[in-house]
Amino acid sequence: MKIMNVEFVISAVRPDQYPVDALPEFALAGRSNVGKSSLINKMIMRKGLARTSSQPGKTQQLNYYRVNDEVYLVDFPGYGYAKVSKVQRAQFGTMIETFLSDREPLKMVFLIIDIRHEPSVDDCLMYDWLKHYEIPVCVVTTKADKIPKSKWDKHVKMVKKKLGFQTGDYHVLFSSETGLGRDELWAIINQTIAETSEEAEETEEVSIEK
Q1: Where do the EngB-type G domain residues begin and end (predicted)?
Q2: pTM check: above 0.70
Q3: Domains in the chain, start-ordered, CATH in brackets?
Q4: Tens digit of pLDDT per residue, the chain (210 long)?
Q5: What are phi and psi of 16, to 5 degrees?
Q6: Do residues 189 and 197 make contact, with C-beta atoms less than 8 angstroms apart?
């Protein structure tokens, strides 16, 4: 996908702060410091728009990035960081559950997993949460450049087994350093947008016929 323009729109914490232009949204969820911001920067080909930090737990809102005036990438707060207070964790949980349970423009969640490590309990809970709400999910195993290519299949199998990965969900191997997986993720985004547009048109046609 050719990136023509990208804009950071808002850091939202409540539904009344979410954008109202109804553009399709693709959210990124994952543990603190798993590389969500780096992935966004590689996706949009901008080095510093999504701020990266060595301090886990820095992102505490839903950060909206509008790409080509066609789609939003939504960066979730990272989860699983022990130094974040219990109150903050509860607030994050409520914010994310509210978003996931009732956000019509949300088309898919990218669940970001560090390929070097077995998914955490929080990763598994997030995956189960997405399946409960019947939200399409793409598991993105990132930091692929950190392990030998010969070990990719073994680590991907480990991740899928731990998550209970279901047939029909997407998986993409990704590296923010090399750009591996970038085109594949954009293809999934474009395909999902096209499919949901077709479904909406079909629903509208049925309503008109009735």
Answers
A1: 22-195
A2: yes
A3: 6-209 (3.40.50.300)
A4: 789 999 999 999 889 999 999 999 999 999 988 989 899 999 999 887 876 544 444 456 899 999 999 999 999 888 876 555 677 667 777 888 888 888 999 999 999 999 999 999 999 999 998 998 899 999 999 999 999 999 999 999 999 999 999 988 999 999 999 999 999 999 999 999 999 887 766 655 555 555
A5: -70, -5
A6: no
